Amino acid sequence: MTMLSKITNESINDNLKMRFENADIYTYIGNVLISVNPFKDLGIYTPQVLKSYENKNRMELAPHVYAIAEGAFRNMIAYSEDQCVIISGESGAGKTEAAKKIMEYIAAVSGGNSSSIKEIKDMVLATNPLLESFGCAKTLRNNNSSRHGKYLEIQFNAGGEPVGAMITNYLLEKNRVVGQIQNERNFHIFYQFTKSASDEYRQNFGISGPENFLYTSKAGCLDVPNMYDSREYADTLKAMSVIGISTAEQDQIHRMLAAILWLGNVQFVPHKDDDNMSQITDPDITAFIAYLLESTPELVSKVLVSRTIETPRGGRRGSVYDVPLNIAQAESARNGLAKAIYDRLFDWIVMRVNQAMQARGEARYIIGVLDIYGFEIFDHNSFEQLCINYVNEKLQQIFIELTLKAEQEEYVREKIEWTPIDYFNNKVVCDLIEAKRPPGVFAAMNDACATAHADPKAADQSLSQRLTACSHSKHFALYDGNFTVKHYAGDVTYMLSGMTDKNKDQLLRDHLELCKGSSNSFLQTLFPEDLAQDSKRRPPTASDRIKVSANELVTKLMQSQPSYIRTIKPNENKSPSEFDVKRVLHQ
Length: 587
What we know:
By secondary structure, this protein is of the alpha+beta class. About 45% of the residues lie in helices and about 15% in strands. It has 22 helices and 16 strands. The chain has helices at about 10-20, 45-50, 65-80, 95-110, 115-135, 190-195, 200-205, 215, 230-245, 245-265, 285-295, 295-305, 325-355, 385-415, 425-435, 440-450, 455-465, 500-505, 510-515, 520-525, 540-560, 580-585, and strands at about 25-30, 30-35, 85-90, 135, 145, 150-155, 160-170, 270, 280, 305-315, 315-325, 365-370, 475-480, 480-485, 490-495, 560-570. A 7-stranded mixed beta sheet has the order 1-2-16-3-12-6-7, with helices on both faces. It has a 3-stranded antiparallel beta sheet with strand order 13-14-15, with helices on one face. A two-stranded antiparallel ribbon has the order 4-5. Helix 3 packs across helix 4 (about 95-110), helix 4 packs antiparallel against helix 5 and helix 5 (about 115-135) crosses helix 6 (about 190-195).
C-alpha cells in the first residue's frame, strides 16, 4: 500500500475495503503484512499454495502469511540470525490463525527426514489444538479467543532443521473458570469433556452434559455455531498422545477438570445458628469432590466454609483460629480453589509440552512466534484488561523502536532528505504503569496490598489514595472509583473495585494444605510450595509477575530480527460480507 498514489487514512481504508470485497485479505505496508479476517474459508492455505511460496522472494508473489514465514525462515539461514514474528491486532482479528499458519509453513518447508525431526514437527503442530482447548474460549467478540498469551520458540540446527521448541505462556485468564458474562463460555476443554467424555470418565468422575454444571452453564451458552466440541475433543486427546502425555497422566488431567466442575456446583446457605456463617447445602457434593481430590469430606467442607488465621506473636507462631466464612466469602473460597487448580494444571501442561519438545541436538537459531491477547476495551475494565493492555503497550514500544524510529535514524545516517514523521512514543505510558519511581500504577497497587491486606475494600481505598501520585501524567486521570489511562490504542477506564485483591492473587494456606495433603500424587505436584517455609518476604503479586514476563519477552524479541503481521477485524458480527469502515479506521 506504500504504492498508493495518495496515502491517507481514508485511501488505506478504501483499499482494504476493496480487497476485502474481492476476497483478497492480505496486503503489505512496507514490511508489515496486513491481514483482514475474512470470517470464511477462502481456500488459500492448500498444500499447493504453500509450496508455491517456497524459495520465493517476498515481492515475487501476492502478499500472504506464507510469504512472511518464508522470509523469516530463509533470513535465519542466510544471515544466521534469530527471527521472530510479532502478530498484533484486537480480539477476533485472526492472530491465532495467523500463528498456526506460520507454524504449518515452517514445519512443511524446513528440512530433515529423520524420525526425531519429524517428531518435533508433529509436536509443534500438536501444541495448537492442545493449548487452544485449555487456553481459548468463546467470547462475545470471538468464538476462539486466546485467553492467554504464548510465545513459541522453534529451535533449529545449523542446517535449518527443527530440533526442539519451547513455549512461554503469559497471563491465563483464570477468572473465566468460575464465571463468564452472558453468552460467553468457559474454556473449550470443559465443553469438549462434558459432551464427549468416555463411559469410564462419566462413571468414575461423575461427568454429564455441560448444562449440569454451573461453571459451564451459568452464562447461557453451551454451543457455538461452526464449532464441533466432540470433534475437537478427539483432536485434543490425539495432541496429548503426540506430545507423549501418558494415559495415566490424561486420567489425572480429567480428574482435576471433574473436580473443578463439581466445585462449581457447591452451594451455600446461611448457617442455622448464625447468618454470618455459611453451610453447604448438599454434603454429598463435597464428599464426591473429596473422592476426586483424594482427600476427606471433612477437610474439603472445612476449607470451603472457614479459614484458618494465625496471629503472630513477637516473631513467634501465635494462636491459630478457624474463622467462619459468610456466604459471599465461602463462594469466593470455592472459586479460589477451582481457579488455583486450573491455573496450576495449565502450567503443568505447558511444562510437560516443553519437556517433550526439548532440543534433540545443538540448537543454533530460533524462530519465535508471538500470539498474545489483543488490546481490550470493554464497558467494564478491570485488572485483567490493565495487564493485557500493558503488554500491548510494551509490544507497541518494540514496533516503534524497530520500525519507525530505526527507519528515520537510518535516513539521518544516510543523509536522505525526508519529512520527519511525528509518532507517539508510548514509553511514557509504559512508565506510567510499571515505573517504581515515581511510583506507577503497579507500584501503587503493591503498596495498597501491603498496607491493607485484611480487607479488600480498605485496600481499594488505599489504592485510590496512592494513585494520586500518578496524576502528574497527562496520560492518567483518577475519579470516583475509577481511573483512566490514555493508551496508544485509545482511552481505557478501569474500575478500582477488586483491583488489589486480583493483584494480590494469593493462594490461601488452607487450599495449599488441602492439595498438598491429598493422597493424589499428581495434585501434590501441581502445588510444589513448601508448607514449612515461613518467609517474611512479600510473595510476588500478579502485577510483579506480568511485569517480569513482559520485560523478559521484550528482551527476547529485541534480540531477534522481527517480522510483523497486523490483523484487522472488519466487523463485530463475524460476517464474511460486512466491512465496518469506522471500526477498521480506528484499528
